[in-house]
Amino acid sequence: MNFKVAIITGGSSGIGKNLAKELLKDNYKTIIIGKTKSNVQETLKELKQISENCSGFVCDINDEKRVKYLVTEILKENHKVDLLVNNAGFSYYKEFDELSEEEIKEIVSTNLLGTMYFCKFIIPYMEKQGYGHIVNVASVAGRIGLPKLSVYCASKFGIVGFTESLYYEMKKKNIYVTLVCPGAVDTNFYRDESFKKFPHAQRHKKVMSPEYVAKEIKKAIDNKRFELILPKLFRFKIMFKDVLKRFAMWYVSRLPR
């Protein structure tokens, strides 16, 4: 085959859709996965204006069996996968004690377990073919805790830790791993009614476009970069926080016990 095969979860809107466009321009066969049939179909119409070399599937990534079946079917047809992008994610903007048990499960299952399921079922194919690249989209909220996003932060902190561990495990297998931590992006992530009170929703100047983020992710893929933090200013904020944390840990370790 003279083209690469990419699978993108959360590919029917926002960052995922725009990354699909970037990959199609670079001769990837691009497979998008979304939660609703209408969104997947609508996005495919848009993508096919760039290239016919794309397809889409509907999948609730909370469903482990459905994910396994879907991956098997995709690989039967394509015989390889060069790139997996775990991009699906959502949240509610509520304080922790306002979330229902079902909402907590939904956030963790979609953001963290869904990412793990796709990695679990695709990595064996990458190992067999001897190469591959996995991109896990976390968030700046996976590096810094934020109010009213406690469970979302927990799920994204989980992705950060999972991806860092995966990086070391996959390195010896010629499978590259990239961690993406964007700040606020203008997508339908904010579609839930609870986000009407989210500060960034009223300050569009501080929200990045999904087109910009997708282009930066594509560069990170091309350069086989491990970590991408956006906007760039956030890199220094996170670095400063990490330095302070290390100092605090050092100080606490010296306290009398």
The rough form would be described as globular
Widest sheet: strand order?
A: 3-2-1-4-5-6-7
Mean pLDDT: 90
- What level of helicity do the residues show? 40-55%
Radius of gyration: 18 Å
| Strand composition percent | 15-25%
Number of DSSP E strands:
7
The CATH topology annotation reads as Rossmann fold
Describe this structure in words.
By secondary structure, this protein is α/β, with parallel strands linked by helices. The protein is built from seven helices and seven strands. The protein has one domain: 3-Layer(aba) Sandwich (Rossmann fold). Strands 3-2-1-4-5-6-7 form a seven-stranded parallel sheet, with helices on both faces. The longest helix has 29 residues. It is globular. The N and C termini lie far apart (63 Å). About 2% of the residues have low confidence.
Structural features:
257 residues; alpha/beta; seven-stranded parallel β-sheet; globular
Short structural summary:
This protein is of the alpha/beta class.
Topology:
Elements: E1 4-9, H1 14-25, E2 28-34, H2 37-47, E3 54-58, H3 64-78, E4 83-86, H4 101-129, E5 132-137, H5 150-171, E6 175-182, H6 210-222, E7 227-230, H7 232-253
